[in-house]
Amino acid sequence: MMGGGNMQQLARQAQKLQQQMAKLQEELETREYEASAGGGMVTVKVNGKHEVLGIEIKPEAVDPDDVEMLQDLVLAAVNEAMRQATDTTEREMGKVTGGLNMPGLF
Fold it and tell me: Is residue 45 within 8 Å of residue 31, measured between CB atoms?
């Protein structure tokens, strides 16, 4: 069995880890990620909260006879930017948690 001192030390370590994770989560939410599709025809910028901050569409990407292509480019760029945000969050949180599987914490 663990002594009281060890339990207190473990509780302090857990509290410190929780504080580090909260600080990192706050920082990650403010980061911006950008992705493009169609050779740069459509560019999307998102933040770490998975909010779309902007979409840039080059005029030559707009073809009234092929709206589906433009829709596909926007969708591809949004999905890639979101993937970048998710991957970065998981990677950075993994550094803090040491790879512990802690669902629901972030």
Answer: no
Please check whether the domain covering 4-97 is classified as CATH 3.30.1310.10: yes
Among candidate residues 41, 38, 71, the one with its CA nearest the CA of residue 56: 41
The residues that bridge with 55 in the sheet, in sequence order, are 44
Do 47 and 27 form a contact (C-beta atoms < 8 A)?
A: no
Give, for all 106 residues of the chain, the pLDDT tens digit. 455 678 888 888 888 888 888 998 899 999 999 999 999 999 999 999 999 999 999 999 999 999 999 999 999 999 999 999 999 988 988 888 776 655 555 4
Domain segments of the chain: what residues? 4-97
Residues in CB range of 86: below 8 A, 6 or more apart = 50
> Tokens at residue 21, please?
């994770």
Burial bucket for residue 33 (CB in 10 Å: 0-12, 13-18, 19+):
buried
